[in-house]
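hey all, quick one before standup. I had two proteins in the batch that finished overnight and I want to keep them in one place so we stop losing track of which output belongs to which input. First protein below, input sequence then structure tokens straight from the run.
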Amino acid sequence: MPIDKKVRKILIFSTAYYPFVGGAEVAIKEITDRIGEDFSVQGEPVTLWEFDLVTAKLDKKLSNFEKIGRVNVYRIGTGNKTLDKILLPIRGFLLAKKLNKIQNYYCMWGMMVTFGSGAGYILNLYRKITLQKRIPMVLTLQEGDSEEHLKFKWGGLIALSWRLALMSTDKLTAISNFLLNRASRNGYKGESYLVPNGVDVDIFGKQIIDEYRSEMKLMLGKKDGEVFLVTTGRLTHKNATDDIISALPKLTSNISLVVIGKGDEGSKLQKQAEDLGVGDRVKFLGFIPYSEIPKYFSACDIFIRPSRSEGFGNSFIEAMAFGLPVVATPVGGIVDFLSDKETGVFCSPDNHQSIVKAVSLILSDRTLKEKIITNARNMVTLKYDWNHITKKMESVFDRLDIND
């Protein structure tokens, strides 16, 4: 007797997707890669998951359609970054309407309150006007922007878009308690779930063999007795790489900074380092593939990102999984996983003198450093492995069935 197969087709909306990679894009790929076939006892249904994703093209060189992992990626636009984003809500709605006639989606999944997820909300508005059944909408909050950005950017339009989106969301997930609280303050009253971002423990938890470590030290020009701080992420005001550079002249001359990532502030940061006389102590490496970052971590001693705002921060738990002590600020979602002198060391936002103090503490107290590394690594393995996170997200999708 053939097994009854239950197919769940999910339409995902994300303003950007691979090869443009941030925490949100990593979350989509890691979760969709891991949600598999759910076989229960004989006679019970089998659940098959299928994923389509609508995103802006953003680059003329990219194809309009591509399969990445288990996701069918539909890129819309001409490759003009600004226009592709602005027009994504309407273009995405038109494509989603067409795709849904073929796929009959189980639900839609919007990644953040952005141009991308706007297409899903417009589709449900259209279906309401045309007296069709709405498609359940799951919204995931990953935003790391400040409260001021939310309230005042674009004359308050971002704050308005949040309220409108939350009003039309069936299930809400957020990567931190900070974002769950923000949603509540902006009027969300439905079911919400904490589903943090995770880390690929298989990549970041593996021990780097000495050969790789020696190669990386040689490549980065690290000499005996030198200490390398490392930061990863987009080079933006939010991530406060400028504060680390400002702290360098007050740290001993054997301490340097490795910067992994690209962004609008790259040239400004390089000039800052030169102006402060520490240009030779800051190594800007640009974009490094996700799977290669552990090799660079192997040559480094402390991870630091003194964020001015943060929704969660994948980079922190990646460093923890690898075994680097972490210096961070107590802002946004960071407080969910970093406890001062237990799983990391806090410094103050916009205070490079506190960075000096935090780095000096880790370097001078070996017992504290080892305690932090052990506690943080154990916590990440237990709570933030992508396999655990995927089960949390799958249970949210399951609840759509329960409520039906």
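OK second protein, same deal, sequence then tokens:
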Amino acid sequence: MKYVLLDDDAIEIGGTNLTILSMFEDRINETVRLSTRDLSKLDLIKHADKIWIIGNIMNLFQRQDDIRDVLFDTITRFVKIEFDYNFCPYRGEIPHEKLGNNRCSCPYGTTGINQIASTYNKIIEKASHIFFMSERQRSIYANHIPLLDFSKTTILSSCFSKQSLALFESLKATPKNNRYAILQGFGGWHSEAKGADIAKNFCITNNLEYDILPIQKYENHIKLLSQYKGLVFLPIIDDTCPRAIIEARLLGLHVITNINCQHVTEWWWKEESKTLDYISSRPQTFWSIIDKI
């Protein structure tokens, strides 16, 4: 085993978990996967010499022990992947305003939490590299964490497995109906954040026939999505690099989205012919950096 993947307990069919599985598909047999919820000091001792790849860590701040401080004082080689906004307990500026009723000044301002601020001090100081999902996400981090060293950062974007990319290609020519798909989300705040109701109202206002797609296993979802004319996805949060609209494009759908999808201003998205090549290259880009650590 060469690597340790440490992350919060991800939803199996959620974007974070799917990107993680895609990144590690060729090296899963060399990787120990640990949960921030169950991480122990014995784990740290046992795997201290490995390269740690750290994703979401919000569960660490829910724990009552000192494992968080011990973690960053013990491991010597690690990278951090920022899937959203872990420096804020609400996971971003817009959720902070909506759920916390306050303008986000995390992690160092008046709304910040000392534990998170001290942890990010260690991450910024000690991480070999930090990966972001989009350019705009990195810019927001830089505004909140001024000491972020851009030379030790890379835009990773969402990642897709070779199997998924082959599936998209095989389904791209699927006959399309004349309807638009809307993603249901996981309910509650998640569905609100992903703009499910806004997408529905958009379709009604613009006389677009639509269906709200249920949550189901990933391959079944992709097969169903491939039958639609388009996807309407209008999140109200800063969605760092949503897989949903990338999947839709690679399946040949018409994508209706908004600027809150933070990657839509990047060259590989604006030039549709470049999207597949760029997305296909992201796992290799990630490992080319890891292999130099």
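Flagging for whoever picks this up: The chain has two domains: 3-156, 162-279. Strands lie at 3-7, 31-35, 51-54, 78-82, 129-132, 153-155, 180-183, 210-213, 230-232, 254-256.
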